[in-house]
Amino acid sequence: IAPTQLYRNSVMLARLCVCHLLHNLALKKTAVQSSNGDNIGLAFKAVDGNRDENYQKWSCTLTLQQSDPWWRVDLGRVYTIGAVAITNIAGFENRLNGAEIWIGNSTNFSDPDGQTFYFPCSSVEGRYVTVFLPGSGKVLNLCEVEVYYGYPLPNVALKGEATQSSTLSVATASKAIDGRRNSFYSNGFCSHTAEDETNPWWRVDLQRSFTITAVKVTNRGDCCAERLDGAEIRIGNSLENNGNNNPRCASISHINAGKTYTYRCDGGSMEGRFVNLFLPGQKKTLTLCEVEVYAAPAGRGLSDWI
Prior knowledge:
Elements: E1 7-10, E2 30-33, E3 70-81, E4 83-87, E5 100-104, E6 124-132, E7 144-148, E8 161-164, E9 191-192, E10 201-218, E11 232-236, E12 248-251, E13 260-263, E14 270-278, E15 287-288, E16 290-297, H1 302-305
Antiparallel strand pairs: 1-5, 2-3, 3-6, 4-7, 5-6, 8-10, 9-15, 10-13, 10-14, 10-16, 11-12, 11-14
């Protein structure tokens, strides 16, 4: 691969790739954009580590309405990049339609070989990562851009089916695997069991067995963070006792309000089709704003999966 070669990937979804990788290379790095739409949506807001999708929370970028707007982060040196994750702005998801991701060692918008690169696939080298939106009268909004090296593992819970022991109002189990970490229950993106239940639980069926390396749990942010204290993450292939008898991966001592914590099973990984959040005890209420499961299919090497 020539060091000056650029690779391009079309952005087809609001969230391009949600991956569990070693390190976000873009975090706190120098970012610039083609224009500033106001004094709030500056380029560095997309590398501040905050995925909040609400522009009013001051964590998203904004360009003027212009032809071919762009945003770019300088990683500081050349890295082997495995994946890019983009968080779009809530309410204006279509603004990213047709955007492209460019990776290379030059800030020049040229594509000498006309190659297109789709994530995740294999790794490519580059220092600069650019989000480019071709066309006239375009506005570029980005709430977070994350750049990862290593081998990407997907959040397989996104394609699963979720259920729970009971449901309060419209706070169905599926709300915890909708790809949003929005932690305010009133916004409608969190699951919720009936109040004061005995041993409430939530479960995602991954549809097949996976080798699971990490589970990320986002707690409710507007109140009641302590409700999740003592919950257990259980993983396995059995539905005995609704899956709650499967081996325990980890226990949740406490997750601060609105925060996302990562749990890794003892021994590094566990195999299973079902991932349960089980909250033992009487008069318990289980609320989950997002559950992410990072894994590769069981019985296949990681290199086969990526």
